[in-house]
Design goal:
The protein has 217 residues and is an alpha/beta fold. It contains 3 helices and 21 strands.
Length: 217
C-alpha cells in the first residue's frame, strides 16, 4: 500500500520491488534495485526516509523517521543494506552495507558505520536518557506518560490526511496475447536478492552459535 501523508508522497525507483502487502507512507525515497518484502512498513512521520540502492527490507520490518517542532530524526539507509525480518529502525542512519538481524532495533539518533552488523534481537540506543533525547521531555516520574500523550497527538495529526495512492509496480499486468510468455526479469532479480540475503542470515546464525559454544566451554 502506497500512501501520501499531507503533501508528501513516496518516490520509488521503477526498478525497485515492492510486495503487495508492504506499506510505504509519506516522504519516503526508495532507491534503484531495492526489494521490500511482505508486511514491511516504511513511514515518514515529520522527517524523511531514504533507502539507498540495492537494499532489502525483509518481512514485517519497520523503518520510520520521526520529527516534530523541536527535534528531527530522519531515517537514512545506505546502499546494499539488509534489514532483517521484524527489525525496527527509527530515526537512525545506516551507512553502506549494514545488516540488521531478526528482531533487532536501532533507535533515533544512532549512526551505524559502513558494514556494521547488528545481531538478532540486539538493541542500539542513543546516548543519554531515551525519553529526553527522543521526545524532548525532561526526566520525571511521569515522563513516559507525557511522551505517550504527546506522541499520540502528533500521530493523529500527521496521519489524519493520509491518502492511498496507486500501488507501485503492483498493478495487474496488461493482458497478453495467447502464447506470449510473461516477463521474467523481476522474478529473477528478486530470487537472487533473497538467496543472497538468506546466505547472509545463515552465516550470522552460524557465527552466533559458534560464539555460544565458546562461552559454554
Amino acid at each position: 500500500m502506497i500512501l501520501s501523508s499531507g503533501t508528501k508522497k513516496p518516490k520509488i525507483h521503477p526498478s525497485a520491488y515492492v510486495a503487495p502487502t508492504a506499506t510505504i507512507s509519506g516522504e519516503v525515497t526508495i532507491g534503484a534495485g531495492c526489494a521490500l518484502l511482505h508486511g514491511a512498513v516504511i513511514t515518514a512521520e515529520g522527517a524523511p526516509v531514504t533507502i539507498g540502492a540495492d537494499s532489502v527490507v525483509m518481512e514485517h520490518a519497520v523503518i520510520k523517521a520521526s520529527g516534530g517542532s523541536a527535534t528531527q530524526f530522519p531515517a537514512k539507509i545506505g546502499d546494499r543494506c539488509i534489514i532483517g525480518p521484524h527489525a525496527y529502525v527509527v530515526g537512525a542512519t545506516l551507512e553502506t552495507g549494514c545488516m540488521i538481524g531478526n528482531g533487532a532495533a536501532v533507535y533515533n539518533g544512532v549512526t551505524l558505520k559502513a558494514h556494521t552488523r547488528v545481531g538478532d534481537g540486539e538493541v542500539r540506543l542513543p546516548a543519554g536518557d531515551f525519553i529526553e533525547a527522543v521526545f524532548n521531555i525532561e526526566q520525571s516520574p511521569d515522563a513516559a506518560a507525557k511522551a505517550a500523550q504527546a506522541y499520540a497527538q502528533f500521530l493523529r495529526k500527521s496521519h489524519s490526511q493520509d491518502v492511498v495512492l496507486d500501488a507501485h509496480a503492483n498493478k495487474a499486468p496488461a493482458r497478453r496475447s495467447a502464447g506470449e510468455e510473461p516477463p521474467k526479469q523481476q522474478t529473477t532479480e528478486v530470487d537472487t536478492v533473497v538467496d543472497a540475503m538468506m546466505l547472509e542470515l545463515q552465516e550470522m546464525e552460524h557465527r552466533r552459535q559458534e560464539s555460544l559454544k565458546k562461552k559454554l566451554k
